[in-house]
Amino acid sequence: MVRSDAVAAVAGELFEDGWSKIRGAGVSARSQGRRQQQIARAARGHAPAVFKPVRGGGCRTRSQLGNQLTYLTTKSSHIIDSRSQYDGHKTLNDKQISDLVERFAGNWDRATPKLGHTTHMIMSFPIGTRGEDVRDIAGDICENFFMQEGHQFDYIVAVHEDRAHPHAHVLINRRSAEGELFYFGPDHHFNYDDFRMAMVETAERYGVRLEATRRLDRGVHTYKPADKEVYKSKREQRGVQERDRRGSDHARAVADIARTSSLYRALAAEASAENRGDVAKALKQAAELLERGGQLKSDGEIYMAEGQSFEDMTGRFSELAIRAQEMVEQAEPNRRAALERELNDIYAGVAHMQPLGPNSDRLREEPTETGVYSEINIRRGNIGRLSGSDVRGRIEAAVQGTSISADDVVSRLEVGANNAALERQWMSDDLQKIAQGEGLDLDRRDHLERAIERLDSIHVSLGQALKDADIVRDAGVAEDREELTEIGDRAGVTANVLSAMRRDSAIDPFGDATERQAFRDEIEDRLSAEELEDLRAGKENVLGDLSDNRLDRLYAVKAYLQSDETTANSPAVNEIVREIADTEIDTMRERLAETDGEKGETHG
């Protein structure tokens, strides 16, 4: 039961957006500097960098690997080999493919990992990119990622020019020379964003104009199409239909695009101040296009005509902020909170540049009235009472058994959070410390719920201790608060069903027939007749107002379809089951790897 008002506010955001979109202050200065650079590139017509791990592309047997290599290396125009054996070849013959299969398989374990012994990735480039440049860019990227000290992986790269967009297929043997098993993870040294950025930065050395923005940064409201739609459109020889956002999911996307439009305008002003009129014009036009509901498109120019230095300007703030963040991280614990507030004040002064990404609006908002870290709630005149043994003892008792430091709590109280961003940063830091201490993965909803319950208990204890000592005005405790339900899970039955599905999506999530009917009623009350038809066809996007989490929407569709015998065994159910399996692999790859012992040796 959540009883701390301040924790309840943060919990709502976490359940709505997920931990990966919150993470304390949210976004590092380095990543925001990168984002600003990429936005400037998109405004000037650079083409999106397309990097894609192929779903289900891992090989489990020698036969599968042989078939895959035959496809990759007999249609290719360039080959790159991590061991240089086949460098310079255009294609490989049957004997070379067979030798390569044995080379890869010789490093395989007896047991087959869930994701296969290999990983297949594709880097796609704009129409008109020279094959030699695709080869060199992909080769440099693979050497940088897969031939590092401590990360020595065997791989083969095959460049294909048989389609409009030249592309490089990368097939990596997942077990490294050091015993590490390759996988993608959001906070891992191998992650999707770093590969896209590497494409942009490496391509620039060869004069190729790429950018690495999000779809929303370009004004694209829709989700990428599902694989089945891509294949179906090819069979039917028509354009691909992307997946629409619905309800609150669509509303959040519109708000995100509006914030991005404001950032384009802020960058345009910075470019004007730097006498970069051409860049300022492009950024201003991009802002206007997004405000009209349009989408940024590549201008079709592949190669750079001249040196482009605006990224240097957009990076200067990032570099200064990074140095400031490093100073904060290296500071003595008793100084860290004060430095965090100073850095936060700097960010507040440039909030229009969105230094914290989507969370930058919090820089202009006041903290909560009742949070223990809130400057509004702290009685400055009584702060000296923190040194009293009784108060100190109660603070230590509140955080006992967690990785939260009592010294950090005291330092934050002495400084006080003067805006919502800093208050949430400190509370989210507490949440992360709880997760670290208890081995929780905050990207998992069930683990997130457990961590929030613990955070609530701690902040309730802190609030009561500080109120008793008259250090805060309000303990921020609501005694009779109803049980927390996730934002989007507006009714209890739906919340219970989703919770059961998250634990095991293969079980019947209903306790009895009454609960089954109540769930159907709750779902049907949300939807129009047309949307219900889409739901029965297995279209999860009609539940955009239920949750921003696609996996939760898929769970809800499966539960709904299987709650009625007329749809329980329909083709739509089979498709949803497959989508759930694929999505769990895509969004929880790191968790699956850990559960299966696939991570191998950890580095960095």
Automatic annotation (TrEMBL):
Residues 95-207 form the MobA/VirD2-like nuclease domain. Pfam families: Relaxase (PF03432). Residues 231-251 are annotated as: Disordered. It comes from the Bacteria. InterPro entries: Endonuclease_MobA/VirD2. This is MobA/VirD2-like nuclease domain-containing protein.
